[in-house]
Each structure stands twice: as structure tokens, then as C-alpha cells.
Amino acid sequence: MRYMFARASAAEQESAGVSSALAAQQTSVDELNKITTAFATGAERNITAVNGMFEAIERILGFKVQEAQDVQARLNEFKRWQEEREAEEKQDLRELASVADALIVPLGNAVSAAIEHLATRGEVSQERCLLGFPHPSGANGGRLRDFAARRQELAEKVAMHWRGKAEHAGCSVPGPRGHSAEHVALLPCGPSR
Questions:
Q1: What's the structural domain count of the chain?
Q2: For residues 100 and 126, is the Cβ–Cβ distance under 8 A?
Q3: 78, 98, 118: which is the final residue of a domain?
Q4: Does the first or last residue of the chain, that is N or C, have fewer Cβ atoms within 10 Å of its Cβ?
Q5: Do 108 and 161 belong together in one domain?
């Protein structure tokens, strides 16, 4: 019996060891399952976060693409505007060249600035430009004062222009239609009718 008891004890011990090992294994499996679940949950969260980052990057890139397209559209519009201005300037220069002896009287500051720009570039002669003549618009409330302040200077410039034309033509006429220099600024600068 002792032998059986010892044998039973050994079997019990072995069975307890196996049970203990199985319990430890089950604990390890449970812990592994928890770790795997936690890892899968973390991975799922990471994938969700990465997908969110990619969506945000995609939206940002979409805005940047739209911004670049808007800038390109504005550049194209500016290029068209610039080409139109250059074409208009070429046309204006052709028209000015067709009346090479005419006195150019730009009315207003903006037109004076444009003609002065052409004169500084050598496109038109400074001597044939009557710069600074006020615009006759009713919106230009200071036009009479401006004209009165510059009248003598403008009259002298007109007289010099016509004297130069008369001398070049071999004539002694001081201005158009035989008028003196002080009356020239009040007369239209064009052919007699």
C-alpha cells in the first residue's frame, strides 16, 4: 500500500503539475489573447489615425492645388491684359507716327503720364507733347485753376511748336492762322476749315 500510496502521490503530483502547467499555459494564452487584442486595437487605432492624417494631407493638397490654379488663372489674366495693353500701345504709336508733325495734347494727368512715358522711351518727341494740360471734365474741379497756372507755359510751348514748323517749312508765320503766341493756346491745333 505504501507503494500504491507513493505511486498515487506521484500520480497526483504529476497530475497537479500538469494541471498547474495547463493553468499556466491557459494564463499565458489568455495573456497572449489580451496582448493580441490590445495590439490589434492599437493597430486599428493607428490605422484610423494614419487614415485621418492622409485625409487631412489630401484636403491640404486639394487646397494647395486650388490655390495654385487660382494663381495661374490670375497670371494668365495678367498676361492677357499685358498683351492687350502692348497691342493698344503699338496701335497708338502707329497712329502717332501717322501724324508725325502734330502737336500731342494729352488731356489729364493719366494720359500725360502715358505720353511722357512714351517720350522718355523715345517713342515720341518731347517737343511735340503739351504735357500737363488739365482734363476738361466737370469732375475735375481744379481744371480752370490748373489751366490758369500753366497757361503761359502751355502757350509758349504751342508757339515754339508752330514756329518750328513754320521755320522748317520756310515760312515766317508765328502760329496757326497768323495768330500771335499769346492767342495760340486758345486756338484748336488742327487744320483750318
A1: 2
A2: no
A3: 98
A4: C
A5: yes
Q: Is the domain of 106 the same as that of 156?
A: yes
The radius of gyration computed from the CA coordinates of the chain, to the nearest angstrom, equals 48
pLDDT tens digits for range 140-170: 667 777 777 878 887 888 887 777 666 666 6
- Burial code (b: 16+ CB inside 10 Å, e: under 16) for 116-126 equals bebbeeeebee
**DSSP codes joined into one string, 80-144:** HHHHHHHHHHHHHHHHHHHTTTSPB--BSHHHHHHHHHHHHTTSS-GGGB-TTBPP--TT-TTHH
What length is written for the chain? Answer: 193
* DSSP conformational letter for 170: T
**pLDDT(182) > 50:** no
Higher-scoring residue by pLDDT: 83, 119? 83
Which residues are CB-neighbours of 144 under 8 A, at least 6 positions away? 134
Per the structure, the complete domain to which residue 160 belongs is given by 101-184
CA contacts within 13 A on the Cβ side of 37: 6
Question: How far is residue 124's CA from residue 130's CA, in Å, rounded to a whole number?
Answer: 12
